[in-house]
Amino acid sequence: MFVAQIRLAAMGMTESRAGILRLIGGDSLKPRGVWTEDQVKTQATTTTENEDGQGDDDAHTAFGAEDPYECYRKMLKVGVPRQTVEERMRIDGVNNTGLDGVNMNEALHPEQALAPIASDTPVMKTKRRRWHWTEVSKADRAPPPLEGSLWMQVDEKEAHQRLTAPSQAYIQELYVRKIGNIVESSKRAPLMSKARTASTIQRPSRLRSTGTVQILKGNKAVNLELAVNRITSPFADVAKDVNILTAMYLQDTDVRTILAMWPSMAEEIALEEYSEDFEALKPSEQFLVTIRAVPMAKEKLECLLLKLELPSRAENLKQAAGLVTRALNQLCSSPKFTKVMQLLRDFGNLANEEFVENYRARFSLESLTKMSHTKSFDNKNSMLAGFLHVLWMENDGNLSDFYDEINLVLQCKSVSVDGLTSEMNQLREGYNLVKSVALASSNASDDGAKLAQKAFTQFADDVDDKLRGVQTSLDTMNTSKHKFQSWFEEDTRAPLDQHLKAIVHFALAAKAKTLYSTNQCHTIYQV
User: Fold this and answer.
1) Which of 7, 64, 286, 363 has a C-alpha 20 to 30 A away from that of 405?
2) SUPFAM superfamilies, from UniProt (predicted)?
């Protein structure tokens, strides 16, 4: 029984190796032929003759067709671990020193196939946890200002010496490991998924009140009823006031609900065709019948809603644009934040070991969010936490409170620049609607139309004045935005919200680190 189990396990291993060989083009588990020194000399002679007789191309083709390392390179390409490939090469009697470059003169004899091979080929002896930062291409980045951008303020030469020795040692400790001394675990926690069944709740249909007629159904009727019940004025008076934009006693939430629950085409036809007792209708339907007698009733309700909300919406828009403007100016003028970004660039080059051949002179601010994704080898510190610790070690910790110089940026946490643009576009659409209603009212000759035309024309002028003031604030913000993009050499097509969000996340993490360290010091002092 025990022997059968051993054979069964060996069969599984054989099938696994066979699958790998089939994947790379092999058709058996037999070792490939070993190139001996005589075969190498013979091949070299053949190659020389081919060069004299047929040309370099034919000789190269004949040589490459019998390359014993080709199958092993294929194994590496499909993801087979290098250690497994080298073990396979020892079993097959092939020198693994030629895996990175063909080295025919050191092929193994069959009797040396299973013996350990001492390789003199230099291999990577360290493993790094890298910060995957991004850099804007030269074609897409904003041109720097005449006095130079943030990245041009310090010389690239000897950049690796700007970080002190303790900081460099700390980076090496967290993010660099010898290959044979990896602490990280290959185990992965199983993903647990819990399936939840959604139950469908059958709601009982609402019974009609005795003696009333209901045309609107479902939630629309309920929500509309709640909004209409809060109107205390007679519906006829409300209709007259809506016609001339004087129904300012209505709540903006109620007007918004009425517009959202506006009857569909079929419901409008049903209301128009209703010819029975008016009092038999529900209050919400009585209101709709009355208000729809006003020309362009829905459009005039939308204009009334704009009139109710315009002062607060315009003021909020101006304040938000002003806040973003001042925050961008802070980022461009803060000495501490400038030094922190330059120090972070040196930190990234050192952690990624890119000082020698691939020195990064700049990085995009969106890379700040990626610092939390990279963990140290002990999985206790992210790249962001490591840099904040280095920030405390450098310059006597004087840069650790840089967030105080850009405090307005932290207030932009809930502000969306794209949202400001969208809000301005909505106000412009409302302004165009007011003008169209005024123009339509001028074509009628009755007294109600004349009053409406005068009221809507006056309101259109008021909206235009408000929007001019808001646009001035937005233009100032866009000027600061262009200055910000030039100072950091950012992509002009990238949304500003993306950059502000990354900076806010970075600054809040630094602030939390400072508060934690301060509390720890106070605790130790008290003890």
Assistant:
1) 363
2) Formin homology 2 domain (FH2 domain)
3-state SS class at 224? helix
Q: Return d(Cα 438, Cα 460) in angstroms, integer.
A: 8
pLDDT, position 36: 45
For residue 236, the surrounding DSSP H or E stretch is helix 235-243
Q: Please answer whether residues 145 and 487 qualify as being in contact, where contact means their C-beta atoms are separated by less than 8 angstroms.
A: yes
At residue 511's C-alpha, the angle toward residues 510 and 515, to 5°, is: 120
15 residue type, one letter: E
Residue 56 has pLDDT above 60, yes or no: no
Task: Please give the pLDDT value at position 43.
Answer: 46
Q: CA nearest 173: which of 398, 373, 391, 390? A: 390
The answer to whether residues 286 and 356 belong to one domain is no
Statement to judge: residues 106 and 246 lie in one domain: no
The b-or-e profile of 55-72 (16+ CB within 10 A means b, else e) is eeeebeeebeeeebbebb
Whether 53 is covered by a domain: the verdict is: yes
pLDDT tens by residue, 276-293: 888 888 899 999 999 999
Among candidates 315, 309, 253, which has minimal Cα distance to 430? 309
Query: What is the reported pTM?
Result: 0.67
Q: Give the pLDDT confidence score for residue 126 in this predicted structure.
A: 73
Can you tell me the mean pLDDT for 505-518? 85
Specify the 3-state DSSP secondary structure of 128. strand
Question: Can you tell me the distance from the alpha carbon of 219 to that of 159, in angstroms, rounded to the nearest whole number?
Answer: 67
Residue 246 belongs to what domain range? 218-296
Distance from C-alpha of 50 to C-alpha of 60, rounded to nearest angstrom: 9
Q: Which residue has the tokens 């070993």?
A: 34
For the cut 80, the answer to whether the pLDDT of residue 320 exceeds it is: yes
**Predicted local confidence at residue 463, as pLDDT:** 97
- Is pLDDT larger for residue 204 or for residue 514? 514
Tell me, what's the pLDDT at 308? 97
The Cα–Cα gap between 495 and 364 comes to 12
Select from 263, 296, 329 the last residue of a domain.
Answer: 296
Domain limit, last residue, from 98, 119, 140: 119
Per-residue model confidence (pLDDT) at position 205 = 39
CA dihedral 401, 402, 407, 408 (to 10 degrees): -170
8 A C-beta contact, residue 194 and residue 241: no
Per-residue pLDDT of 94-112, as tens digits, reads: 777 777 764 444 444 444 4
Instruction: Tell me the C-alpha to C-alpha distance, in Å, between residue 498 and each of 19, 402, 491.
Output: 47, 20, 11
Domain identity same for 309 and 260: no
Residue 265: inside a domain: yes
Mean pLDDT in residue range 365-393: 87
Measured from the Cβ of residue 313, the count of other Cβ atoms closer than 10 Å reads: 18
d(CA 151, CA 493): 20
Burial (CB < 10 A; 0-12, 13-18, 19+), residue 277, is exposed
Stronger pLDDT, 363 or 161, i.e. the higher one:
363
The total domain count for the chain is 3
Would residue 12 count as lying in a domain?
no
Query: Does a structural domain hold residue 525?
Result: yes
